[in-house]
Every structure is written in structure tokens, then in C-alpha cells.
Amino acid sequence: MCAEGRPDIAHGSSRIFEGRVSDAYLTRIDVGQPGYSVVIWRGRHVSDPTELSKDEASAYFDEVLRVGRAIEKHYLPIKMNFEMLGNSLPHLHTHAVPRYLDDGEPGHPAHFMRADLDPKTAPMIPEQAYARDLAALRELLRD
After folding, report:
1. What's the CA gap between 143 and 128, in Å, rounded?
2. How many Cα atoms are found within 13 Å in the side-chain-facing hemisphere of 107?
3. Which residues pair with 9 in a beta bridge?
4. Is 143 exposed, middle or buried (0-12, 13-18, 19+ CB in 10 A)?
5. How far apart are CA 130 and CA 120, in angstroms?
6. pTM value?
7. How far apart are CA 75 and CA 133, in angstroms?
8. Cβ neighbours of residue 104 under 8 Å, at least 6 residues apart?
9. What are the distances in angstroms from CA 68 to CA 65, 74, 109, 143?
10. pLDDT at 6 over 90
11. Per-residue pLDDT at 95 exceeds 90
């Protein structure tokens, strides 16, 4: 993630937010959780939030919450989960996972978080719906 810079598209997903210390991407793969996004720390390389200074942590979590609030406003989930795993990709990033009453996994982590999705064969969000949601989230996240 450090080497990729701050691209508009990362891993097939489009950026919805360019903050001071992070970028957020609306996931293009249809994982069954509309609005699922990833917020990526774009400062110096760190693997865990414990490596951030107090000011860096404050800036990062402010931006993570800003993205989460925009997702809540647009998609109206019943709950937002924020997950920092880093086991397979050791660079600080946060999964912003909206949860829905009918998402099939009440009381458990979202199913896709336990699946190995291949971007080449995984289902994609239809282009028109993805474009609509990108525009709405970008508008909500504007300064």
C-alpha cells in the first residue's frame, strides 16, 4: 500500500475520500454489504494503530469516522463495524463494514471477511449503482 501512492483506483475500487492522512475506497466487489469501504493510512508506513503518534491517531480516526458517518447517512445500515486486521496485508487500514438486519450474519463478522474472494471471478456491483453510490458518498465527504 505504501508503494501505490494515492491512486484514484486501488484494487479495482474507486476513491471516495482523500483526507489529510488517509484515502477511502468504495469496494467494487459485491460482498453483500452495500457501502463496504476501506480506509487506508497514507502517512509513513505503519502496520498497527499503536505505531501512530497521538496526533496521527487522532487525525486517522477522525477520517475513518467521517467515512463511516457518510456510509451511515447514504446506506442507512443498522450498525457500522470498523475492523483493523492486518494479518495478510501489514499496512494500517480499516474496513468500514455497514451491517444490515438481513445480511445473513447477525451476531457474527460479515461472511465475506472470512472468504477468499478472487477479484477476477467475484461478482461486481452493477456499474450504474456503483456510479450512483460513488457520487453520493463523494458529495457527503466533500469539505
Report:
1. 25
2. 0
3. 14
4. exposed
5. 18
6. 0.92
7. 9
8. 32, 111
9. 5, 10, 17, 15
10. no
11. yes
